[in-house]
């Protein structure tokens, strides 16, 4: 099973983790690491290294971060380059986290990355777009 480390600014990680637990329940090999304003890059790096020891069963690790270019993303990226089987996905949302948590048993890290990007994009929509999908006429295949 792929290990998961969720991280982001402020309480992003624990907020996403708590929401995930409410929706799908307790998950093994998942650690949430917040990056509050009083923290430092060095502290975050140490927390990530500790989390890697906890979640990595040898099948790979996925870092899920909040913001491209932010400190959690940069630290995760540096550590993932030192690991043989790790991926970093950024811009994460609850849709991506919940769906991918349920699929991670059957996926490699690369497959997880590819599927997570599709899932995260699918989760980004609007009410207007969703209503338009439901009001479009169905095509008839009866040949008339």
Please describe what this structure looks like.
It is a single chain. By secondary structure, the protein is α/β, with parallel strands linked by helices. The chain has a single domain, classed as Rossmann fold (3-Layer(aba) Sandwich), CATH 3.40.50. It has six helices and four strands. Strands 2-1-3-4 form a four-stranded parallel sheet, with helices on both faces. Helix 4 (94-103) packs antiparallel against helix 5. The termini are far apart.
Concise account of the structure shown:
With 144 residues, this protein is an alpha/beta fold. The protein has six helices and four strands. The longest helix has 15 residues.
Give a quick set of tags describing it:
51% helix, alpha/beta, Rossmann fold, 144 residues, 6 helices
**Rounded to an integer, what's the Rg over CA atoms?**
18 Å
What is the CATH homologous superfamily assignment? Phosphotransferase system, mannose-type IIA component
- The average pLDDT is 94
Class computed from helices, strands and strand pairing = alpha/beta
- Oligomeric state as shown: single chain
The total of helices stands at: 6
What kind of sheet is the major sheet?
A: 4 strands, parallel
Layout of secondary structure:
Layout: E1 3-9, H1 12-24, E2 30-35, H2 41-55, E3 61-65, H3 71-82, E4 86-89, H4 94-103, H5 109-122, H6 127-135
Parallel strand pairs: 1-2, 1-3, 3-4
């Amino acid at each position: 099973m792929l290990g998961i480390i969720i991280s982001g600014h402020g309480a992003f990680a624990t907020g996403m983790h708590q929401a995930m637990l409410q929706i799908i329940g307790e998950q093994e090999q998942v650690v949430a690491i917040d990056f509050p304003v009083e923290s430092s890059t060095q502290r975050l790096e140490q927390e990530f290294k500790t989390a890697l020891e906890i979640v990595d069963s040898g099948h790979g690790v996925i870092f899920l971060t909040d913001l491209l270019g932010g400190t959690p993303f940069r630290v995760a990226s540096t550590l993932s380059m030192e690991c043989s089987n790790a991926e970093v996905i950024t811009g994460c949302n609850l849709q991506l986290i919940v769906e991918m948590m349920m699929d991670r048993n059957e996926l490699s890290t690369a497959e997880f990355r590819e599927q997570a990007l599709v899932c995260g994009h699918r989760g980004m929509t609007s009410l207007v777009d969703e209503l338009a999908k439901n009001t479009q006429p169905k095509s008839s295949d009866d040949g008339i």
